[in-house]
Amino acid sequence: MHLAPVDYLILIVYFAFVLGIGWMLRKRMSSSSDFLMAGRSVPVWITSLAFIAANLGAQELIGMSASGAKYGIMTAHFYWIGAIPAILFMGIFMMPFYYGSKARSVPEYLKMRYDEKTRTYNAVSFAVMTIFSSGISMYALGLLLHLALGWDFNTSVLASAAIVMAYTFLGGLTSAIYNEVLQFLLIVAGFSPLAILAVAKAGGWQGMASRLKPVMTHAWAYAGSTQSNPMGVEVFGIVAGLGFVLSFGYWCTNFLVVQRAMAADSMSAARRTPLIGAFPKMLLPFIVIVPGIAAVALAAKAGSGYSLPMAADGGPDYNQVITTLMAKFYPAGLLGVGLTGLMASFMSGMAGNVTAFNQVWTYDIYQSHIRKNAPDRHYLNVGRVTTIVGVLLSIGAAYVAQHYNNIMDLLQLVFGFVNAPLFATFLLGMFWKRSTGHGAFSGLVTGTTVASLTWCLTVAEGKGGILGNLHTFPSAMAQSWWIALLAFTGCFLVTLVVSLATQPKPEKELEGLVYGLTKLPDTSGEVWYQRPWPLAIAVCAILVVLNFWFF
Amino acid sequence: MMDLRLPSGLFFTLLGLILVGMGVFAPETRAALTDANVNLYSGLPMLVFGAFLLIMAKRAGGKA
Fold it and tell me: Quick one: which of A24, A233, A447, A466 could link to A237 by a disulfide (CB 3.0–4.6 Å)?
């Protein structure tokens, strides 16, 4: 891929704007809550797009197009059966407790609902997880830029990290959120032409379907058994493992996304944030997954002029699908926009992780364990310093990822499963007033242990099985979904049993935290399109259409 | 509070102008597999979107 001066110009304009937004917001940062929580004053259309963008990191973008090329439209399950139902549940049922409890973070909610040890367990595992996912994303981007443009890995990683550090340092969460919106729009602008051009060249959807194996263009028709699709999964695994446990665990309890909704300016806006975000989220597969499928169809078309990128071992390197498509389809000018979109996705993902890490570290670890009762000015400064530390740690994690790929696999698995058992903890905490702190803590520990043990005792694609092999999964994806299911079940059962054997909190302390003891927000006075239920029903209707369309 | 529509409107207007400029003044710029003036066709919607955001921001600013 070769860049023209105009492409660099576009890249520079983009950098100037993200830094400019941070610069313009710097004066508003007068308290720790301004810096870490955006002062809870961000308009709803902005929080909604940031909610989606913070999750749309480089790893997600590269990974989804790669999966599209590898597995076909079944990849869309991550959106249509995974993310969307979980997002709706979070907006309708969970947001009243998050926002209404006045907790500043997800771990702090756990402290109010359960106890200090549950909060700390969650805060620490979350902090480590964000640093590593930010580092892995950075590594993915550096590698891709190196392969596509020959840019030096160190320079591109350090330069883009420095820019993220600058604008989050200046304007805190507000700056991160505002830039995420710009980044989201840019990702759409930079990637949708690629989807259109690649699909058109491949002969449209029908033309693609005629050249591909039928499993590539059907989301459900080949999900009957694990043998009939390359993902190695079946309906139960998709619905229960991915759809229920993994997605609900991520979207409902991961502070990275919840933080954006909590920055909204009112309870009603906080509930609408995920619901409005669901509309663009539902359509993302068309620009992140479909180009991957089109790439395979193009490669299968004789004389198309496109062939799949190859890895060193001779197999296709699906991670490079998106950049090789851009090189073939984008002329100088639009190529700059596409590349900038890629950089933007990386930055939104990294800034999301850093700001979430920042708040959890400052409020849930530093303020509650290291220095209590300091003046607010002190925590504002801690927040600023943590921004720098967070970025430096992410850079460190990127180099760990570069040198020890296997360690990263393990970490990704272990920390990925912090979320799965956590959803059981929240489900019981929010909807069953009898659940206790001891129950929640032992449940979480059990869930994480079950996840690690399952990974050590089963094998998929040559990974896992350190302690023996009780079962071989048809794919790593199937393995991770089943690990999540088992971790969730373990956590749920242990929390249940231990809670019944221990003393519950008095009901008075649980007001505002648990269903049945909380006055739910009255939405009957609002216009219909601002009420949660009509929005959710509209999303569901489109979701059903999409699933049938690509059945 | 800063109105985000202003900087993003400005950004997309600029982006649109650059691409449309490319499309008009260097209409023969092509990638290996494209046969249309992609810069022009993708720049126009960006320009319109940018202008739309700017107008929205201006109207809201006028009210306040």
Answer: A233
